[in-house]
User: Fold this.
Amino acid sequence: MSQFAFLKPEFAPVYELARKAETAALADPRGACFYARLALESAVKWMYDNDRSLRSPYDTALSALIHEGTFRVVVGNALVTKARIIKDYGNKAVHETRIVAPQSAIICVRELFHFTYWLVHTYGRGARPDATLTFNADALPRAVQVEASTLAKLQALAKESADGAKALAEEQAARIRSEEDRAALDAENEKLRAEIAAIKQANQSTPDAHDYNEEETRDAFIDLLLSEAGWPLDQERDREYPVKGMPSTSGDGFADYVLWGDDGKPLAVIEAKRTKRDARVGQQQAKLYADCLEAEFGIRPLIFYTNGYEHWLWDDKRYPPRAVHGFLKKDELELWHQRKTNRRALSAMNIDSDIVERYYQTRAIRRVGEVFENDHQRKALLVMATGSGKTRTVIAQIDQLMRANWVKRVLFLADRVALVKQAHNNFKKHLPSAPSANLIEKHDTKKNDHNGARVCVATYPTMMNLIDQMQNGQRLYGPGHFDLIVIDEAHRSIYRKYRAIFDYFDSLLIGLTATPRDEIDRDTYSLFELERGVPTDSYDLDEAVGDGFLVPPTPISVPLKFQREGIKYDELSDEDKEKWDMLEWEGQLPTGEIDANAVNKWLFNEDTVDKVLKHLMTYGLKVAEGDRLGKTIIFAKNHDHAMFIAQRFDANYPHLAGHFARVIDFKTEYAQSLIDDFSIPEKAPHIAISVDMLDTGIDVPEVVNLAKVGVEGSNPFARSSFLPENQRFRRPATLEILETTPRRDPHCLHIVSNFGTGWGVVGKAGRSS
Assistant:
């Protein structure tokens, strides 16, 4: 009889997969690990579909689901660790060519047993499984004949499973043919979630007396993390190493784990405590082991202490203890030891004036150096107005840290592909001595190995996916791979969605943002462990304007009646009333008086767009001795709005043959090629109609005009950070229709000249009349 029989009555799909894992554990370890992972994924996704307390993360991948904060709250640290063990062994089974040991499959099936027991105990409607149930490795089927799963077969099954899930989601979406269908489905789902919540609460009122065998989980997880960091633990002295000089009667002790260098000297010592205890109670014991090893070998090891769920690292000659995600690889530990003697003082290092030359840039670099070196802090936040050179400042900072032997490998993160490519180009230009790699691009490892790069640039989702990748049985990027992470445009959404990246890597951290320091949210300051409103260094717009590096905007308004006053149906001419009645409205046909806000929500109007484009082409700043409109960005509300603007431009200027103005948004195929062309002064397009792609961080120094067409609920002096850092004294003109406060002329066309590079007259684009 299956040890997973308790699953069958209410979780049959999970049971079928768990049964396959159980049957194959001894005969086909690779297949067993795969099916155990698949069973876990099925269970976890059921939880997200039915437990209203779980918040969906940034991605539907299993790794993202089990690392989501609300999931940890629901299941607890022990079960998160069990899930990670199953996930990691399952991933190895599918992606690694090495033989999978039977012991790995037994561990996988054992941890799946405990996780699914908790699942039924927590969510089961019927009788809960007996608390005395225990997993018995000796009871696993031995005589059963199963076909050994090849790597190719499992990879095909994994793809088939993913494709099936995608097809099911598409089928379910196709069934929703109207808003009424969606509302009915939502109501049905909410009713089911309410029932599950009641069942969950009732089940939790009964104490869970099941023995989840956390000690075995702890040992298995520590061994797994060490294996992923490249420590085989195949020597007798790797575990329970005897030391002399402990403060005990005999002076003898045994260090749980010692990690050794090639020279036979200890690189790190690990103290493992029972899972029920706080890992930090082992801090002093681990320190004493380090003292003993230092006395014996003349070298002080790095200190770790763990309870299997929480891991702490203590570089006790430099930093206080800090929580980490796992253990360092041998080369990372060796580099740590070398830096203790080779690291140079940042205060004595010069700053490369070929990269930065302005006083506030060098001040920011010196301030970060003081924080890292004197204050022994590991995080810094730089607030610098757009156009003041954030990227070049941080490149000069990285150059200084590398020359001082503080950092070897750097990760630069941005939120869009275009910004990643732009950053990569900047590093190649300003820091050519440090090999760099764009992690978004596919690399031939024989020609351009990511691991050989000293600077890696990536988007946040790309890095989240790479964290779980394995190579030759080890993690491609371990927790200690990067010495420094730079977060471009650090703000709340980054904190909420992708904090797992910063929790995973044990590195120095520098955040860059152009958001005024008083407007930065509390969560961002919390990420950098700073007092709210007090960044590491700041250089705001007012200072930049006062120093003459940036120029403030000067708006000029051109009133448009409907945007300013709205529309009164009774005051329209008979001809306009006929046009009004013929319009295709969203929803019910409005009657009577239509206020200005409603006008923006309902209509794309040819006349308004044509007027804006005419003003832009007539009064916008020109180049090529006044023969051609300078590079221009028009901001649209959404894709349809952008396409409408492009359509009206082509209708008004057919002689430009559709090349002059182009839509650049997330629906544009090969959008990066358009951005590249837009960045070339003499090359079309000369007008980029953008939706959320050219509004932050894009570096196109040739941009001289900014425009908005039809603005809904906008602030005419809202901040924009899309202008380039190295555009210093250009004066872009902004052409925009705005909805302003009642004290100003509402819904006006604004032309802004003497604009500079820091602030723009921007807001949300909307429909206008």
User: Anything to note?
Assistant: The longest strand covers residues 252-260.
